[in-house]
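Renewal narrative, Specific Aim 1. Our central claim is that a sequence can be written position by position from structural information alone. The example that follows is taken directly from our test logs and has not been curated for this report. It begins with the structure tokens describing the chain, in the order in which they were read.
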């Protein structure tokens, strides 16, 4: 049994296929790490020697030898040519070296148009991320080289830039490359700074729970202020919301009131908050209001029910900005059997013809899964585009749902009846004309109003 046991071969593992022999390792093992990018990572598996070399390369690049890095940005390999497990080491090594900014006595010039132009060394101070390639006489972006793997700006990462006449002025190509706060260059700069200051990362981790608690309290204060003002139908903005203003508007004044009543809130809102996380901008207010409106519409939709029948009441009018606004009201029978009317949405329309109005109404209904086939009534004014028998809005909806009967708005009908009666009967016409003049006279200034109140007071105490 012992002899048979000795003849049993040890099962081989996958590592056995990628190990060097002892005699090979002594002669072919490299003396130090190499940062040269792989020639090709997709070699066929039928070449065992290539697989062995690749394995040694991965194991030997745990520490980056900065002396072997190519400094010239026009000659160095791109970050994405290195294996993924080496890229951070390469980035750290380049960050330790910093941008390649050679100081030459005279940079080479070349003809652009009718003038010879050359790189200017003072640009290094103005754009500290700038790199210059002596080999190509072109400039590159250091942080974008490190982190812009997708090469969104090839002119500053792969190809290089050399059109010197485009540097400076309003259309400076360097400023265009920098872009706004959401540009790829800005994100690359942020990653560069984060990786450049590793000690700062620990502070962030330690402060994260505290910052999260502060942000939540700050955002909760904003949400509650918006909720109160929206509930009361009050304006948010003020005429002057600057720091020195005595009245900064309802929203900010309400946040200040919350801060006066709670010390913890006072420590995290307004001037006590970071400039980039105050949560009081108009954009934040509108976003939270939009969330509230979505929740309200969802609640109304739940009240109607999945197959609930409903009616629509629609009217449009010009607002102060001279835009046509269309209000949509939903009328339905609630679960308790009582008729409910809910303001549902207001839509800005570019045209008041019936097809446009129908299209906008259907978009609102379809967005909330309210089927036109479940419509059981329409209520509009008597304008031709609304009540037209053949091409009016009510006729268009009747084609889709024959049960959506049209009812002329009672308030509009009463107004039309009063106008018609007043025009036909002279006494009624003179009565309403005199009443209109009295109202205009009394309400035109403060003195007639004071006299009227004094007369009413004397009559009440007689």
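The sequence written for that structure reads:
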């Amino acid at each position: 049994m012992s002899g048979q046991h000795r003849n049993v071969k040890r099962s081989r593992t996958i590592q056995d296929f990628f190990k060097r022999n002892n005699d090979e390792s002594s002669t072919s093992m490299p003396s130090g790490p190499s940062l040269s990018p792989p020639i090709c990572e997709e070699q066929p598996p039928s070449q065992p020697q290539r697989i062995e070399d690749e394995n040694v390369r991965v194991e030997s690049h745990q520490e980056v030898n900065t002396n072997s890095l190519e400094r010239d940005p026009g000659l160095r390999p791109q970050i994405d040519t290195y294996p993924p497990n080496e890229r951070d080491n390469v980035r750290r090594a380049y960050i330790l070296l910093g941008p390649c900014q050679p100081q030459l006595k005279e940079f080479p010039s070349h003809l652009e148009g009718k003038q010879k132009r050359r790189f200017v060394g003072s640009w290094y101070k103005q754009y500290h991320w700038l790199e210059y390639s002596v080999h190509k006489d072109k400039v590159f972006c250091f942080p974008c080289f490190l982190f812009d793997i997708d090469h969104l700006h090839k002119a500053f990462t792969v190809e290089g830039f050399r059109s010197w006449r485009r540097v400076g002025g309003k259309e400076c190509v360097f400023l265009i490359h920098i872009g706004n706060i959401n540009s790829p260059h800005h994100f690359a700069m942020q990653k560069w700074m984060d990786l450049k200051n590793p000690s700062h990362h620990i502070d962030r981790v330690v402060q994260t729970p505290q910052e999260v608690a502060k942000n939540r309290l700050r955002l909760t204060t904003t949400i509650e202020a918006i909720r109160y003002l929206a509930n009361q139908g009050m304006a948010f903005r003020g005429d002057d919301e600057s720091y020195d203003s005595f009245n900064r508007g309802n929203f900010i004044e309400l946040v200040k009131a919350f801060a006066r009543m709670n010390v913890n809130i006072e420590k995290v809102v307004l001037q006590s908050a970071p400039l980039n996380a105050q949560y009081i901008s108009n954009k934040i207010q509108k976003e939270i209001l939009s969330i509230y409106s979505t929740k309200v519409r969802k609640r109304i939709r739940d009240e109607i029910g999945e197959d609930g029948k409903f009616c629509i009441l629609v009217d449009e009018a010009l607002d102060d900005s001279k835009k046509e606004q269309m209000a949509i009201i939903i009328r339905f029978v609630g679960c308790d059997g009582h008729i409910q009317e809910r303001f549902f949405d207001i839509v800005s329309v570019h045209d008041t013809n019936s097809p446009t109005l129908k299209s906008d109404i259907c978009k609102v209904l379809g967005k909330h899964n309210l089927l036109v086939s479940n419509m059981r009534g329409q209520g509009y004014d008597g304008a031709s585009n609304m009540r037209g028998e053949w091409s009016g809005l009510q006729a268009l909806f009747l084609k889709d749902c024959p049960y959506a009967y049209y009812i002329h708005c009672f308030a509009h009908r009463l107004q039309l009846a009063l106008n018609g009666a007043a025009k036909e009967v002279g006494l009624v016409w003179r009565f309403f004309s005199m009443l209109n003049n009295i109202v205009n006279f009394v309400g035109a200034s403060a003195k007639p109003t004071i006299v009227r109140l004094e007369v009413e007071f004397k009559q009440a105490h007689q």
